[in-house]
Amino acid sequence: MAVKPEGTPIWADAMFSDVEGAKSFYGDILGWTFGEESTEFGNYTQAYANGKAAAAVVPPMPGQEGQSQWCLYFASSDAGASAAKIRENGGEILMEPMAVGEFGSMCLARDPGGVVFGVWQPGTHKGFETEMDQHGALCWSEIFTREPEKSDAFFPAVFGYGQQQMEDGEMDFRLYTLGSKENMALGRMKMTDDFPPDIPPWINVYFNVPDCDAAVAKATKLGGVLRFGPMTSPFGRFAALSDPQGANFSVIDTGTTEGDMPKLSDVS
To answer: Which of 24, 49, 251, 262 is deepest in the core (most CB within 10 A)?
Structure first.
């Protein structure tokens, strides 16, 4: 498998107090199956979409119990060097760089606006094995923040992203790109007053599904909460959800599209 460029979304996992409940919920909606718990690494359990590594779930460590949340990891060739860049640009290291056996090295961090994310330096674990258009695969991610100027300065400085601003007077949305304009790494959305003030900034992950409406119906039947949508866009038909344990995520059917692609302008 080719080495992923620095700053590429490379992995996602989430802590759940009820891991078996999470496995049942996401297994039903995304078609995931699960490997054996890795007792050596806190019962970390990998999820597979059609036999390919898609994400992971894990119980919280003692003292870290709280609302469940998905964490997105960005590729790094040197987790220690990435941690230094994060600090140099005003970010905070929440978990110092550490080796995870032979799988790789990681750290957890927070940007100056409060967005939590991870860094992953691959060893034997290279990250996602899924293709983005595959059912159950993570296919897109977006930073939601009330302080977009902080994220716009921080993430490109740490990971070398280019930036393109959507020409839309109704929303403040930006794309972070890697190497070329066509290689979109992730999006950045400004949170408006529509978001309750107690909701912290976060990175929203999108999982591919063949039918958005069917996935929403199944999720809500299983105790999930519909937050937005379903809505059809030029990128696909999508909806935002919270799972029964409070973790936010979205589902998208990239094969069902509507409307013209938005105009983008380069940000120097």
So the answer is: 251
